[in-house]
Amino acid sequence: MSTTPIQTPSTYVASHAAAYADTDGSAVVVSTSNPLPVSFGQPAATPLAGSASVSGLLGPYVPAPGRAVILSLAGTWTGTVKLVRSTDGGTTRQPLTAGGLVWGQYAANCCEAVWEESDAAATLYLDVTLASGTLAYRLAQ
Asked: pLDDT tens digits for 32-49?
């Protein structure tokens, strides 16, 4: 047990402060007039949502770069839904792949992260082929 007495109120306060380097390398203490230099991602894009009872191409969906894209498929339906990507305004659309294998193709309901875009020119589409039923879909961030 310590023999040093604890005295209050103390005559000093231990201070801790966050700081960052400015453009010339000098330390700048964080305060209301000097907040941390952080950036925020673009706001999320407007979701692509609706329902389909016939086959077709749905979109475009314009994802904000650097954010996960979530696909939700629901309803009673049979068929396939493929997520496809374009960088020329939809003139050409390519299926998604990962490691050379098909990615983003569904034959059942789902709710999952399917893509993260880094190209601001990219747009996404849902290529829907329905055999029967009604599909409810939502592509959002």
From this structure: 888 888 877 778 889 999
User: Domain 48-140 - what CATH class?
Assistant: mainly beta
In the chain, domain spans: 48-140
What confidence tens digit (pLDDT) does each residue in 87-134 have? 999 999 999 999 999 999 999 999 999 999 999 999 999 999 999 999
Query: What residue ranges in 1-141 does DSSP mark as E strands?
Result: 19-21, 27-29, 48-52, 56-61, 68-86, 94-95, 97-98, 101-102, 105-106, 110-116, 123-140
pTM for this one? 0.73
96-122 burial, b for 16+ CB within 10 Å, e for fewer?
Answer: beeeeeeebebeeeeeeebbebeeeeb
